[in-house]
Amino acid sequence: MASDRQEQTYVGAIDQGTMGTRFLVFGESGEVQASAYERHEQIVPAPGRLEHDPREVWENTQSVIANGLDRGGIEPSQLAGLGVTNQRETTVLWERASGEPVHNAVVWSDRRNSDRFDDLRSEDVEWIRERTGLAADAFFSAPKLEWLLDGVSTSGRGDLRARARNGELCFGTVDSWLVYKLTGVHATDVSNASRTMLFDIHELAWDDELLAEFGVPRPMLPEVNPSSAVYGRTDEAGVFETELPVAGVIADQQAALLGQACFDPGDLKATYGTGTFALMNTGPEPIGSERGLLTTVGFQLGDGPVQYALEGAAPTTGGAIDWLDSVGLVDSPVEIESLASAAESSGGVSLVPAFDGLGTPYWEPRARGTIHGLTRGTDRGELVRATLEAVGYQTRQLIEAMAAETDWETEPIHVDGGVVKNDFFCQLQADLLQRELRRPAVDATTALGAAYAAGLCVGYWDSPEDLPEWELGAQFDPDGETDVIDREYERWLDAVEQCREWADR
After folding, report:
1. How far is Cα 283 from Cα 285, in angstroms, rounded to an integer?
2. Which of 83, 120, 161, 457 pairs as cysteine with 228 (C-beta 3.0–4.6 A)?
3. Which of 401, 429, 405 is nearest to 415 (CA)?
4. Is-cis flag, bond preceding 412, omega within 30?
5. Are strands 223-225 and 187-189 parallel, antiparallel or unpaired?
6. CA distances (Å), 216 to each of 2, 181, 221, 371, 430, in order?
7. For the Carbohydrate kinase FGGY N-terminal domain, which residue ranges apply (predicted)?
8. Range 200-229 average pLDDT
9. pLDDT, tens digit, 9 for 90 and up, residues 9-39
């Protein structure tokens, strides 16, 4: 049996997320053959700020690769290619020559430069949105990079902008950082580039006017490639001890779109992770939004056309569930389900988890989390249920906006992410969304999407038609009294209005 396994080939995938880094190995049928995971420190230098240490991320990446291969009894030479997927918008600045970071990475949910857009006229905001497809918000990379170039202490490092103009510094999202450390190549893919607010999604190129707006020197930018392409090869002296092609790079939410087999216009997935992100494939033409949705690059496989997507983003999902534990309302994830299921309703409580501001459709960084409807009789179960219901209401907003922007049916919804492993949570979501939810048999869809991108590039799979067929793990059909659900949803929307611009009150 061991000799048979040693004759097989596989595709590896690095899934670098907000909370930690995972390495997975996939076989030809899309099944997970080996995996390893490590968390990294969440650095909070001030309220509203979040950083990661790029060195720790790289060290953990090497560790999970070595551990995953060892646990699976797989030799690096058995890997046909490597894919990389990553937390989007998180911004890294490093020295080209030394490969050392200039500062901690500024994480996607960080709000430190949220006043960047306050003084822009409406027409300035509009041209940014038209070129990038993004809302004028500190959520994206450009305002984070601007802060790094302006706000980092330059003691002993010289003028950062001057060094950037001279090509001494590299900017990238986390995929670029990992590709650089793995291969020495400074590159990214179209999906990650589309999240920087420096990239024209129509021309598929870095935009000079956007670079000027945020003061970003062009020499510090990575080369932009398709999601499925050979970026470079690992060094024989590195963690893989062989020249392995890094053949796929794709942002995490777009990777989940690919991993969920959402190849056709109208196909829709929702990922419940640190935040909730719903993406709908819109095909080779971008669709603008009048309802606060983002227009983004989905993926590009080799020389094929770019597939665009509409996206709705709610920054806080897993964070809201973690909050329940941090304030002592629950002792374990198991208790969350037992408390929420025992409570027949939220008891009139509406919770808005705007811990990192509001995303779609408001894009309001000054919003703060609020709880409405508390009474002396409110108990833990009702608060826990109100938190889970808020996740559903947020997602319903995103899905309804997509349905209004397009003529495509938004059902069924393919779901993934750590939270959806819980059947109670999935059924509650189906009820609140009043839509059918389908959970795949393979839950590592983000890493699977990166593996697909790499495997297609190196010929492990010949074409998208040859990829493993999407397999249903579980289906959740909506239930419950729709009039009651609709009334509670409208009350939750009222609560959202109360929390907007709360930080300025």
Report:
1. 6
2. 457
3. 429
4. yes
5. parallel
6. 52, 23, 9, 41, 44
7. 10-259
8. 96
9. 999 999 999 999 999 999 999 999 999 999 9
470: tokens are 């999407």
- Its pTM surpasses 0.70: yes
With DSSP H G I counted as helix, E B as strand and the rest as coil, what are the percentages for the chain, rounded to 5? 40, 25, 40
Collect all residues with Cβ–Cβ distance below 8 Å to 98 and sequence separation of at least 6: none
DSSP string, 411-480: -SEEEESGGGG-HHHHHHHHHHHTS-EEEESS--HHHHHHHHHHHHHHTSSSSGGGSPPP-EEEEE---S
Q: 325 near 337, Cβ under 8 Å?
A: no
Residues 6+ apart with CB under 8 A from 481: none
Locus of tokens 């992410």: 417
Beta strands in 103-176 (DSSP E): 105-106, 169-173
Strand partners, 355: 357
Residue 248: its H or E element: strand 245-251
- Predicted pLDDT at 157: 59
- The DSSP annotation for 32-94 comes to EEEEEEEE---B-SSTT--EE-HHHHHHHHHHHHHHHHHHHT--GGGEEEEEEEE-SS-EEEE
Both ends of the chain: CA-CA distance in Å?
A: 67
Buried b (16+ CB within 10 A) or exposed e, 432-454: bbbbebbbbebbbbbbbbbbbbb
Structure tokens given for 65 = 């690769």
Three-state DSSP state, 381: helix
Helix, strand or coil, per DSSP, at residue 247:
strand
Cα separation, 371 vs 347, in Å, equals 12
The overall average pLDDT reported for the chain is 91
- Say if residues 418 and 15 touch (Cβ distance below 8 Å): no
Integer Rg of the chain from CA:
22
Does residue 16 sit in helix, strand or coil? strand
Measured in whole angstroms, the distance separating CA 93 from the mean position of its chain's CA atoms is: 20
Taking each helix axis from N to C terminus, what angle separates 54-72 and 174-183, rounded to the nearest 10 degrees? 60
In order, the DSSP letters of 279-312 are EEEEETS----SSS-EEEEEE-BTTSPPEEEEEE
Burial of 230 (0-12, 13-18, 19+ CB in 10 A): middle
